[in-house]
Design goal:
By secondary structure, the protein is α+β, with helices and mostly antiparallel strands. Helices cover about 30% and strands about 45% of the residues. The protein has two helices and eight strands. The protein has one domain: START domain (Alpha-D-Glucose-1,6-Bisphosphate, Chain A, domain 4). Strands 1, 2, 3, 4, 5, 6, 7 and 8 form an eight-stranded antiparallel sheet that branches.
Length: about 160
């Protein structure tokens, strides 16, 4: 299993960051099309009550593209938990938000493992780097998107 921990202080309010995270279908809009680390598509396929959604996710981490179905539990303005329920990977992530010095502290805890033997073998050598880079890039994209939206909202 590949385990990573990534954190970032974002120069955006916790409300602005949460609004971006809670709109799970819009995650692909954060990244420029030329980005090699991004969510490519993220449609909701099912809702389970008010705070649980199931998405079919397609993402890219350098030369690796993956498709999987994920169940997201959203604890408003505090935590987003993902469990992979279908696909070539197992595991999930927990993303926590809190007020930090200078903005919003976002922490990612990921435990993900490929199911196929060859992918597990390759994951042993490059999986941690790919997953870490994916989350670093995704958090940069999230911060930029949340900051831009907050700035445009203040100027109107």
């Amino acid at each position: 299993m590949v385990k990573i921990r990534v954190s970032r202080v974002m120069k955006a309010s916790q409300d602005a960051v949460w609004d971006k995270l809670a709109d799970v279908e819009a995650w692909p809009s954060w990244a420029p099309s030329e980005s090699k680390y991004r969510v490519l598509s993220h449609p909701i396929v099912e809702r389970e009550g008010n705070n649980v959604v199931v998405c079919d996710e397609e993402e890219q981490a350098w030369f690796v593209k993956s498709h999987h179905r994920d169940r997201y539990t959203l604890t408003p303005k505090e935590k987003l938990t993902e469990v992979i329920v279908l696909g070539d990977f197992k595991g999930g992530i927990e993303l926590r938000l809190s007020n930090g010095p200078g903005g919003t502290l976002v922490q990612v805890y990921a435990d993900i493992s490929p199911k196929k033997p060859l992918a597990r073998f390759l994951g042993f050598f490059i999986g941690s780097r790919l997953l870490t880079k994916f989350w670093i890039e995704l958090l940069e994209q999230l911060e930029k998107s949340a900051s831009e939206e907050a700035a445009s909202g203040q100027s109107t």
